[in-house]
Specification:
single chain, 18 strands, binds zinc ion, six-stranded parallel sheet, alpha/beta, seven-stranded mixed sheet
Length: about 350
């Protein structure tokens, strides 16, 4: 089969690799229908994450179950499934508490399983899914082509945006500011709206992203950054700042922006993968601003979000503004790196 391999920073290729085989009774083999490039893949692509050796990549995919191990009870050949960006058993003490990303048997695509064996990346034709019953969520029907894009967002971006909103405590009537206008930031706007936010301010400098933020539910857009940006957010939100700020970038600047935009007593929900982020704890102390969040337990949220996606109540798939076949994966990375696309979808 063909699968995406990061050979070196800025060198991404589609290679011929061995087909995956069932290794455990709890495994399934999934034929990938669609995958996509994540903002977090770019950290490796740009060489910001340390590069050790060529490796498989990709952690967001949907597909059709091609084969199941003897111990798989809830899935059958032909099922359409959504794969969250981490695999998990959905039964251990941490999964039961909703922290599937810390599952005692779990792990990540293109990493290793609990037994130390390699696990396929999502940007390829076939994937061995460990702990298939716990990991994969099947839809009752085969989705239309358009619905495939919507469902693909349940792998990562939409649950991650939702996690930012939940972590920040967004509820009916909340005032919200969103830092970051990538696919996760835009998804966070949609998630905050879905949870009943009364007013949403999106922070973005790009016209196409500002428009999508408005379509997803943002009432106002602030293009300024730093102290000016925070002052603009305060001016819009009762002169005090947002109850809930959703930090969707993961840099020192974005965290500072989030903290400055939060009202005293408010909360920041952060989901941007942190890179050298520092916190001003004394400032948090004096303003009673708290911080929650982390890597999104996407598996925990898929069942809650799926009905609204299937009904068309929300259309998170609008974050995909480029769709290319898998053999153009290098282009899919390049346009995201150059920020000429919000998010690239790969069709297989
Ligand atoms: Zn678990």
């Amino acid at each position: 089969m063909r699968a995406t391999v990061l050979h070196a920073p800025n060198d991404i290729r589609l290679d011929e690799v061995a087909d995956p085989q069932l290794l455990d009774d709890s495994d399934a083999i999934v034929r990938v229908v669609a995958s996509c490039v994540c903002g977090s893949d770019l950290w490796s692509y740009r060489g910001i994450n340390e590069f050790k050796e060529p490796r498989r990549i990709g952690h967001e995919f949907v597909g059709i179950v091609e084969q199941v191990g003897a111990g798989v009870a809830t899935l059958k050949e032909g099922d359409f499934v959504i794969a969250p960006f981490a695999f998990s058993d959905n039964t251990c003490a941490l999964c039961v508490r909703g922290v599937h990303t810390s599952c005692v048997q779990g792990g990540y695509w293109s990493g290793e399983d609990h037994q130390g064996r390699p696990v396929d990346g999502g940007q390829g034709e076939l994937v061995r899914a460990p702990l298939a019953d716990g990991t994969l969520v099947a839809t009752q029907e085969q989705p239309s082509q358009e619905m495939v894009a919507q469902l693909l967002t349940l792998s990562d971006v939409f649950p991650t945006g939702h996690h930012a909103a939940v972590s920040a405590g967004v509820t009916t009537g909340s005032t919200v500011a969103v830092v970051g206008d990538g696919a996760v930031g835009l998804s966070a706007v949609l998630a905050a709206k879905r949870l009943g936010a009364a007013r949403i301010v999106a922070m973005s400098r790009h016209e196409d992203r500002q428009q999508l933020a408005r379509d997803f539910g943002a009432d106002e857009v602030v293009a300024e950054r730093g102290k000016d940006g925070a002052a603009a957010v305060r001016e819009i939100l009762d002169g005090i700042g947002a109850d809930c700020v959703l930090e969707c970038v993961g840099t020192t600047e974005s965290m500072k922006q989030a903290m400055l935009s939060t009202r005293p007593g408010g909360r920041v929900g952060y989901v941007g993968v942190p890179h050298d982020v520092e916190l001003n704890v004394p400032a948090m102390f004096s303003s009673n601003v708290s911080l929650a969040g982390g890597v999104a337990p996407a598996r925990n949220y898929i069942e809650e979000l799926l009905p609204d996606v299937l009904s068309g109540e929300v259309s998170p798939g609008r974050v995909f503004d480029l769709r290319v076949p898998l053999d153009q994966v290098a282009d899919a990375y390049r346009v995201m790196d150059e920020r000429t696309a919000i998010k690239s979808m790969l069709t297989i």
